[in-house]
Automatic annotation (TrEMBL):
Cellular location(s): Cell membrane
Coiled coil: none
Protein name, entry field: Metal ABC transporter permease
Alphabetical UniProt keywords: Cell membrane, Membrane, Transmembrane, Transmembrane helix, Transport
Family: Belongs to the ABC-3 integral membrane protein family.
Main location: membrane
Length: 290
């Protein structure tokens, strides 16, 4: 109970809670759009932007590094879409190419600044946290940035909800009724990049895609209605964030981000097996029909 009242636990749990809920909603939209791994590609692609903006401004101010992450994440997304559209390389291959390429570029940038006399005056410690995440060391300003971005993202979703849903499930229909599909796709991309970028400090570029995918996968095994899926995904994400943060707080040596993902993954696995549309229920239905 003392941990639940501690300032550190409250700050971290609030940050991961907001990040989890907003990521569950936007991740569900990307999953239905058929680009479930786009968050993974963007997450890896943000790392060179973070290191590059550190090299330029020589500061680890979260808002500055966020802009760098969004810049290279957006460039990577643009290159993936262009390559998929105008080349014979399939989307999954393009995701792998640019994911590894941009992440490798980030590691090159990081190796450049190590031992470089030009950056001795600026603290480089903490940059590696954007690879694996370090939610336990998030500062109050990190959490405030997560809350602000999450509120903006959820507000954009509510404002463009009908248009986004029409675009995701039937792009041609959206065009015929006069919707600006280019603008809708840009809004969806902006929300995804913003969430991925702001969540790197908490869970890192490697695990951020799990925040986007797992809650929706879990919810899909309980309902087929989009409204219910978004609600269930948000609840699962929020519960996992708080419970994962609690477990990592009472057990030393457990990293917060991975513990949240493990909690979320466990709930998803149980749902895949025993959910309303899970493996066990489907097997029983097939047997009853035989």
């Amino acid at each position: 109970m003392e941990i639940l009242r501690s300032y550190t636990f409250i700050i971290i749990s609030i940050g991961t809670l907001f990040l989890a809920i907003s990521s569950a909603i936007i991740g569900s939209l990307n999953l239905y759009k058929g680009q479930s791994l786009i968050g993974d590609a963007i997450g890896h692609s943000t790392f060179p932007g973070i290191v590059l903006f550190f090299m330029i401004f020589q500061t680890r101010e979260p808002s500055i590094l966020l802009l760098g992450a969004m810049l290279t994440g957006g460039i990577s997304y643009f290159l993936i879409q262009m390559s998929s559209k105008y080349s014979k390389v399939r989307l999954d291959a393009n995701l792998a190419i640019f994911l590894s390429g941009f992440f490798g570029l980030g590691m090159v940038f990081k190796s450049v600044i190590q031992g470089n006399a030009k950056f001795q005056g600026a603290s480089q410690s903490g940059l590696e946290n954007y690879i694996f995440g370090q939610a336990a060391y998030m500062l109050e300003k990190d959490v405030k940035l997560i809350i602000i971005v999450s509120i903006i993202v959820i507000t954009l979703f509510l404002l463009f909800k009908k248009e986004i849903i029409a675009f995701i499930f039937d792009r041609e229909f959206a065009k015929t009724i006069g919707l600006n599909t280019g603008l809708i796709e840009f809004v969806l991309l902006l929300m995804t990049i913003a969430l991925v970028s702001v969540g790197l400090k908490a869970v890192g570029s490697i695990l951020i895609s799990s925040f986007l995918i797992l809650p929706c996968v879990c919810a899909n095994h309980w309902s087929k209605k989009l409204r219910n899926v978004l609600i269930i995904a948000s609840i699962v994400a929020a519960f996992s964030a708080v419970l994962g943060t609690y477990f990592s707080s009472i057990h030393r040596g457990l990293s917060t981000g991975p513990t949240i993902i493990l909690t979320m993954g466990s709930i998803t696995l149980i749902s895949m097996l025993f959910g309303k549309y899970g493996v066990v229920v489907n097997m029983l239905r097939l047997r009853s029909k035989q």
